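Researcher: Good morning. I'm working through a list of sequences from a screen, and I'd like to move beyond sequence-only analysis. For each chain I'm collecting a predicted structure so we can compare shapes side by side. This is the next one on the list. No need for commentary yet; just the structure.
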Amino acid sequence: MIVARFDAERGVSTVADVALALLLITASVMIVGYTLANTSTSSTGSDAAPAAHPHGDADSLSATQTTAVLSTSTVSITYSLEAVTDEDAFSEPVITNEQTYTRTDHGPPLGLLADAAVTNHQLDGEPVLAYGEEYEAAIDWAIRHTLLGAEQNFYIVATWEPYANASLNGTATAGERPPATADVSSTTTTVSSGFSEIGEDELESNWLAADDWWDDWIDDVADVHPAVDDSSDVPGLKGADNKSYAAAGTVIGDEIVDGLFPPESAQYALEDQGIERALTVYHYKSMVDTIGEFSFRSADTHRPLVRSEARAEEANRKVLVGQEGGYDVTDADALAAWIAADIPQAFAEEFDTIDERYDGTERDERKVETVVDALATEDVTITIQTWDE
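Model: Good morning. Structure tokens for this chain:
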């Protein structure tokens, strides 16, 4: 499949912004830019719509044109966060009013749908945030309004997957699935997820020098947390490559945590006295509860989440490696270890083939190349399908 890159604007919300508020379906959608009726099919130059490569036997123009409309028009939406109040991990701020849970958002529809895919992040099928479905439904409604009057049906799937077959992923859809008998036109494009790219060189070097990486890692952890046994020789992961998996899980997990909780904006939110703080604390708590066994100490009395001693970078570190003294890659109670355990499952077929054909250094190099080639943390892949009645 040929995939086109779309680097135009995402929704104004980042992952953290979306975590602070989700959409309430309203009757206010503003469309700015192209419509299906006047989108040129031969645009060129810097203002042209992003190229999306069609596939399928049907008339490909309609899917390509739909992609152009949804990437260059703008929708404005009012949304609500009130569903979060039903969550055990959420503590309502002391002072609220009728606007506390109301927000507005705007941006290109495909950018918003990409945000929805990331907001729907889940681990082994368990959603981290309670309000993703409401957000997704509202964007679906906005896209339907944007395409109102078009002569074609549509179905759009946005998928965020930090690496191929990852059990940590997110999906958002708009429209209805095409019937089996439909003559479908399809295009695929990518939109920025708002995450940084994984450090491929760092991942590769740590994987290939896993023994040294492990010794340095466990020593550093023990320096900060004396309860950790720095004589531990093997992380608690199955398989001969467990140290390599641990190294990769740490590199990949670090970028994911900072993407979900950008340190600067998370710090501001934790210092806030209102809804922004309440929602950020909820996201942190829900994330670690979904990953494993440990929980943050009381956000009312203990750092890093207590307002008077808020430390976003420290909180991010705990999401990555667990509670004080509790992480030596011996169990999946934090994101790095969780990803380390997921990697051999995600690449089971590829790794089995490599094990059969290679050994030694070449085997290790081919395995890490397989993982590096499958990284896509920074992208949301969007497929647009259209068809006639």
